[in-house]
Amino acid sequence: MKIKIIWIGLWCMAGSLGFNAHGQLLSWSPAFPKATDAIKITLDASKGNKGLLDFSGNVYVHIGVITSASKNGTDWRYAPFTWGGTAPASQALSKGQNKWEYSIPNLRSFLNVPANETILSLAILFRAGGCTNCAAQRNSDGTDMYVPIYNDALAIRFEQPPIIPYYQPAIEPIQAAVGQPLSVKAVSSQPVNWELKLNQQTIHQNIAQDSISMVLNLATAGNYLVTAIATQGNTTLRDSFSFLIGGTVITAALPAGVNPGINYEAGDTSVTLVLNAPQKTKVAVIGDFPGNDWTENLDHLMFNTPDKQYWWLRLTGLIPGKEYAFQYLIDGSLKITDPYVEKVLDPFNDGFIPASAYPQLMPYPTAKTSGMVGIFQTQKPGYNWKNNFTRPDKTNLIVYEMLLRDFIANHDWNTLTDSLNYFSSLGINAIELMPVQEFDGNLSWGYNPAFFFAADKYYGPENSLKRFIDSCHGRGIAVILDMVLNHATNSCPLAALYWDGANNRPAADNPWFNPVARHPFNVFNDFNHESPDTKYFSTRVMEFWLKEYRIDGYRFDLSKGFTQKNNPTDVNAWSAYDAGRVNIWRQYYDSIQRYSPGAYVILEHFADNAEEFSLSESGMLLWGNVNHAYSEATKGNVGASNFQSSLYTQKGWIKPHLVSYMESHDEERLMYLNLQFGNSSGAYSTKNFNTAIDRNKMAASFFLLSPGPKMIWQFGELGYDYSINTCENGTINNSCRLDNKPLAWPYLNNPKRIELLDWYKTLILFRNSKMFNNNFSKSTISHRLGTAVKYLSIQSDSIKTVVVGNFDVNPVTSNIEFPKTGIWYDLKDNTSISITSLTTNMSFQPGEYHVYTDKSPSLSTPVDNLKRIDLVARITPNPSSGLARLEVNLDHPSQVVILLTALDGKQVSPLYRGFMPGGFNQLNLPHGLAQGMYLITFQTSLGYTSLKWINTNQP
User: Fold this and answer.
1) To which H or E segment does residue 836 belong?
2) Are residues 170 and 297 in the same domain?
3) 624: domain CATH number?
4) Phi, psi for 270 (deg, rounded to 5)
5) 285 in a domain, yes or no?
6) DSSP helix/strand/coil, 336
7) How far is CA 62 from the centre of its chain?
8) Confidence (pLDDT) at 21
């Protein structure tokens, strides 16, 4: 006889959902629903996470299905309702006594599921409506709820205790103890012959019945496996679950030298796991390590320290280099992984990470467990660091802020590393990465962190990130990490460990989080930075990235939120001087300097100036948002365009510790504002593309040459003109702020955008030259930045510079103050003017600007830092008696200057000045020159190449 055997489930703990059984979180009818059935689902909000317990408002459902096309068992498809919406079709019916009911007439047609997809389960959540962070009813550990959908006529399951089918792991624990009876009941959709086994021994049988039940009397502690076997003809179905009863928690002190997290040991065959979980009653380690297979058992119960603070367990018999997945099972019900893990497996999002970004990613243990899973690995492959690095002076940082997801199509570290020539040619000396620690989802800005020691896998493996950082250091570029320690999501184990399910927030006894945020801008769960536990965790995070990844510092998101003053709604009170917050930041800064002397600390603070001054005096840098003033100026609205807030001297600061920026990830793009909302007068309009680019060049002149560190938002140097609120379908909506944005690389085919790029390069090159940067921080600054014609004067011992520009849309005549008379050179176009009076009346056309210096820094007289670069260039024929050509191959389009100089050093003429496309280019050399040797210099803002030409032709 041929036997068809179908395994329905093998579980570490008992199940999560109900059916028609009494007192379950969910119940439904029919008992074995099919895709075309009418299904009625009833919720009991006194179970699970109790998110809707005693809720008095309207309740709505969020539904979808798991199908044969889903990436994994949690990949919802065909969800018809918007989260937080109040569509009438999504409203549940109140049944009183914390119960709600929702009916679906025909699941497949109601959700428009294609006929070629098999529906495996109905995914459902009950929630409040009209809100984005709605109270919601879920399983007890916060995971989604599911109703199994049956596609075969014959099906079985356990009804007591409730076990969910194989494609969604069990959640709720079995309530059983030594000497306590446990009711077991399995049901089937048709009559079958039954066999019930306990630890592989038959304990009960039935013939031709639709159920089998028995009360188990378990007299001893230990692990138990219950299996139901149903036979009908040639078909055999099995369903099983396992559980642990009893087990004494042993009190034992922490071994010497271990810390919370994963402690690797010599020999690479063992680890000691330490969890900080005070006052929990029982913790077990479950996973795929030897002797476990995701089962709570006596061998893997953790020891508890005498002070009840820590739990620990040493695991042995490990294979060096092998990845092991694991979790902690807390008090028999809550499953989390270690908050210090350096790699996690995510059942919801890992399936959407392409192999090109993360090759050979370990698969999630589907049908073994649920929730986030951690990885430990002895003898993990290390990274061989190649470059020693001296960090640039923090007062002269030119920071390039970037979101990897929207910078390159492949969104991986290896591709970004291969793109470093772009950053080198631009001349920046620091890259600031928006958050890259493991965050919820994949397509994120990263400000929703969950695991602070793990690099998010969407961008690639950790050693690829280290290679990127190492490669940056090899080019003289620092790497700054955007760090989010104001808050964490519900996925963070520190939040889940002590959670108030009824109020959907951290519990009052959570050692790390405030139950209710202490300030009005908080998102997710608010860290309490006066808590010793939070301080310990935060400093461990800071130390880890500085040492393990050799990053050069942090930009701290929402640093003003590191306070315990309770100002949940009053923005002004929140921003007022807070001595406690200052002390917290000084402690963190001092810790960072101990871990890595000279590491940068940049705060997104925006607090009272006295507080920011105090922090800057302590050595910290602070963000300076000048987006509004610069955008108004480039649009031509001069009345609200005062740039002076970008100067640390205007704030009364002693040290140039203000990181000013025209754009950031949070601000609207200047070019977009120009093109959509620009001002005009007559034929002159800042909405004109060429004009808008030129006005951005003018703004960059003031921005990049003012003292102190600067930050450029990605592609600002190319005039990025997609709104920050651009949706993926091309429309603009405030709800699309976090959507993927179009890449800017096609801009490199636009000569006008290349003009802007090359002007950025020229300004940065000039700023970084010894001539300009010598004693830059001690330069004398004078300015007039609130009028239509703005000027900025920077005077040092080695060079004097005056930046002047008319931001009006009309011609303006204005007095400009020069620090000396004589010849002044214009960096913009290599022209010069003679200044005979310190105050000179000058007329400016709209958008006209100049960068004057008292020493020639132009490309025709290379500045100190202009260096020889490798270009594929030649003169043919050479020597030449007739027509000769200069041939050059450019990596990318660029503004260039080609100079012809006689042997005696006298410049004959500029051969070419302007835009040159990428690829092969050629230029005819002039006729009629005297015989002799000439030097041809091909210059870009990045550097120069020179070639000798022998001209034998008679004039």
Assistant:
1) none
2) no
3) 3.20.20.80
4) -150, 155
5) yes
6) strand
7) 27
8) 40
Task: Write down the residue that tokens 């079985």 correspond to.
Answer: 156
Convert 96-130 to b/e letters by CB count within 10 Å (16 or more is b): eebbbbbebeebbebbebeeebebbbbbbbbbbbe
Angle at CA 134, nearest 5°, toward 133 and 135? 125
Chain mean position to CA 546: 18
Confidence (pLDDT) at 318: 97
Residue that finishes a domain, picked among 827, 853, 879: 853
Q: Does residue 861 lie in a domain region?
A: no
Q: CA-to-CA distance for 703 and 630, rounded, in angstroms? A: 9
Residue 60 lies in a domain: yes
Torsion of CA 559, 563, 566, 567, to 10 degrees: -20
* CATH number of the domain bearing residue 803: 2.60.40.1180
Percentages of the chain per state (helix, strand, coil), in multiples of 5: 20, 35, 50
Indicate whether 372 and 412 sit together in one domain: no
**881 has a pLDDT exceeding 90:** no
Residue from 104, 130, 121, 129 nearest 52 by CA: 129
pLDDT at residue 851 is higher than 90: yes
pTM for this one?
Answer: 0.83
Residue 955 preceded by cis peptide, ω within 30: no
Indicate whether 835 and 874 sit together in one domain: no
**Mean pLDDT on 844-869:** 71
Whether the Cβ atoms of residue 452 and residue 437 lie closer than 8 Å to each other: yes
d(CA 320, CA 266): 11
Amino acid at 904: D
Q: Which residue has the tokens 């989802």?
A: 441
> Half-sphere exposure (CA, 13 Å, Cβ side) for 209?
14
Contact yes or no for 926/886 (Cβ under 8 A): no
What is the H or E stretch that residue 765 is in?
Answer: helix 751-768
* Average pLDDT of the chain to the nearest whole number: 89
Query: Same domain for 891 and 820?
Result: no
**Could you give the CA distance from residue 387 to residue 823 in angstroms, rounded to a whole number?**
44
Last residue of a domain, which of 187, 211, 245?
A: 245
Q: How far apart are CA 721 and CA 304, in angstroms?
A: 58
How far is the C-alpha of 726 from the C-alpha of 724, rounded, in Å?
Answer: 6
**pLDDT per residue as tens digits for the range 476-516:** 999 999 999 999 999 999 999 998 877 878 999 999 999 99
Whether the Cβ atoms of residue 945 and residue 869 lie closer than 8 Å to each other: yes
Does residue 514 sit within a domain?
yes
Task: Check if the beta carbon of residue 279 is closer than 8 Å to that of residue 533.
Answer: no
The Cα–Cα gap between 924 and 907 comes to: 18
- CATH number, domain of 69, equals 2.60.40.10
The length of the chain is 955
Q: How confident is the model at residue 868 (pLDDT cuts 50, 70, 90)?
A: low
Give residue for tokens 């963000």.
623
367 and 413 inside one domain: no
Instruction: For tokens 């807390």, name the residue.
Output: 330
Residues 199 and 238 in one domain: yes
What lies within 8 Å, CB to CB, of 114 at 6+ separation is none
pLDDT single digits (tens) 140-151: 767 788 898 998
Residue 947: CATH number of its domain: 2.60.40.1930
- Are the C-beta atoms of 403 and 444 separated by less than 8 Å? no
Q: Which tokens is 635 given?
A: 């649009």
pLDDT per position as a tens digit, 800-820: 999 999 999 999 999 999 999
Same domain as 803, residue 747: no
Distance from C-alpha of 615 to C-alpha of 618, rounded to nearest angstrom = 5
DSSP class of residue 92? P
Total domain count, the chain: 5
Q: Write out the residue range of the structural domain in which residue 481 sits.
A: 394-752
51 and 126 housed in the same domain: yes
pLDDT of residue 172 exceeding 70:
no
> Which two tokens mark 146?
């599911």
Residue scoring higher pLDDT (546 or 7): 546
Report the candidate in 578, 558, 549 with the shortest Cα–Cα distance to residue 566.
578
